Amino acid sequence: MKIQVGELDKPDVKALLTEHHNDMLQHSPIESVHALDLSALKAPNITFWTLRINNELAGCGALKKIESGHGEIKSMRTSQSHLRKGVAKQLLQHILEQAKQLNYTRVSLETGTMAAFLPAQKMYEQFGFEICEPFANYKKDPYSLFMTKSQCSF
């Protein structure tokens, strides 16, 4: 497995992000979908990573700086052909290590509440994330579950 920064302009990455966004729209109304588009992922406060296995895109994830010491995990997605191979766990571990190097004291995320999101919720819980109130500009939403993790458990 090889994790690298960027690659947002590669066709396979664009396709995976499109798949991610379309999948979110199948499980949540549009106003409750918080997936970032390609241009938003290029913002200077966001670092985007891909994970490849034998040069094949296996997954992606990003870390957005919300404010000093607080980051948000965005765009976590595993390719269909690489599900249940540990890709998401590898990416999440990498993102948390990067957050630690950036001296973040807190990392948060928003995920869905529908059954399709249960595997992601369980993985985040395994990494020590706990349910929290909405953070940053989020508002309470029956389709959103907010989770956070403090530095002491990175």
Automatic annotation (TrEMBL):
Keywords recorded for this protein, A-Z? Acyltransferase, Transferase
Q: GO MF annotations for this entry?
A: acyltransferase activity, transferring groups other than amino-acyl groups
- Keyword Transferase listed? The answer is yes
SUPFAM superfamilies listed in its UniProt record? Acyl-CoA N-acyltransferases (Nat) (SSF55729)
The record's section on InterPro entries has:
Acyl_CoA_acyltransferase, Bact_Acetyltransf, GNAT_dom
Q: Which Pfam families match?
A: Acetyltransf_1 (PF00583)
Q: Which domain of life is it from?
A: Bacteria
- List, for all copies, the residue spans of the domain called N-acetyltransferase: 3-152
Under which name does UniProt file this protein? Putative acetyltransferase
Tell me the classification of the organism that encodes this protein.
Bacteria, Pseudomonadati, Pseudomonadota, Gammaproteobacteria, Alteromonadales
